[in-house]
């Protein structure tokens, strides 16, 4: 089994990366493969609602000049997903939100029902809002949201300063262990013949 961890910070070796490394180490200690993918520091397009992905059914975005389609494929191949972001104005980094808009609109079907978690890193405030913002993508696709021993947050400003947040590092490690435990439980359920009941979706518009 494998978990994809997305570093949504433009700083490759900053505190978001370090926090995700702590999660990845716990996953690996529990025999779960972990890959950390960086979104990079180049511009990432926002969704233009062109509808191309829905017409083709290819689980790809029409724009292919950033990491979106690569990460859709990686997320589709993984068994679990964790997305981390630094806090920008009490919310997630705009680049990772642009990425998630397109990843889930074009490739959400590949991620449906897989366990997932959001991680927020800040100097001081906005971490809870960031985690909540990220996890809304998971909730609309029926993805079990993985918790830890506290909210999935940690604190630090300068590179690797997050290591000084002992509780934050513990939270990251426990998140990794909890993700590994849930993945193994799901696998055991499948082997035992546990079926997932899925009803046909009902869509209701407020304006008729």
Task: Please explain how this structure is put together.
Strands 1, 2, 3, 4, 5 and 6 form a 6-stranded mixed beta sheet that branches. The protein has helices spanning 15-29, 52-56, 68-77, 94-111, 127-139, 166-191; strands spanning 2-7, 33-38, 80-88, 91-92, 116-122, 153-155. The model has no long low-confidence stretch (mean pLDDT 96). The chain has a single domain, classed as Flavodoxin domain (Rossmann fold, 3-Layer(aba) Sandwich), CATH 3.40.50. Helix 1 (15-29) crosses helix 6 and helix 3 packs across helix 4. The chain is globular and about 50 Å long. By secondary structure, it is α/β, with parallel strands linked by helices.
Question: Which segments are poorly predicted (pLDDT under 50) over 5 or more consecutive residues?
Answer: none
Total domain units = 1
Strand content: 15-25%
Compute the number of helices: 6
Q: What is the CATH first-level class name?
A: Alpha Beta
Q: How many strands in all?
A: 6
Write the layout of secondary structure elements.
Blueprint: E1 2-7, H1 15-29, E2 33-38, H2 52-56, H3 68-77, E3 80-88, E4 91-92, H4 94-111, E5 116-122, H5 127-139, E6 153-155, H6 166-191
Parallel strand pairs: 1-2, 1-3, 3-5, 5-6
Antiparallel strand pairs: 3-4
């Amino acid at each position: 089994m494998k978990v994809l961890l997305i570093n949504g910070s433009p700083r490759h070796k900053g505190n978001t990366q370090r926090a995700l490394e702590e999660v990845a180490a716990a996953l690996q200690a529990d025999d779960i493969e972990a890959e950390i993918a960086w979104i990079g520091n180049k511009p990432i397009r926002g969704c233009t609602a062109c509808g191309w992905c829905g017409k083709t059914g290819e689980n790809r975005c029409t724009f292919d000049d950033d990491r979106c389609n690569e990460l859709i494929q990686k997320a589709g191949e993984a068994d679990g997903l964790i997305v981390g972001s630094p806090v920008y104005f009490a919310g997630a980094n705009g680049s990772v939100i642009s990425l998630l808009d397109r990843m889930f609109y074009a490739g959400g079907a590949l991620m449906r029902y897989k366990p997932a978690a959001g991680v927020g890193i800040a100097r001081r405030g906005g971490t809870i809002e960031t985690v909540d913002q990220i996890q809304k993508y998971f909730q609309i696709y029926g993805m079990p949201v993985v918790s830890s021993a506290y909210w999935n947050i940690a604190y630090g400003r300068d590179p690797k300063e997050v290591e000084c947040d002992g509780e934050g590092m513990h939270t990251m490690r426990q998140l990794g262990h909890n993700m590994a435990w849930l993945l193994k439980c799901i696998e055991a359920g499948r082997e035992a013949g546990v079926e997932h009941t899925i009803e046909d979706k009902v869509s209701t518009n407020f304006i008729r």
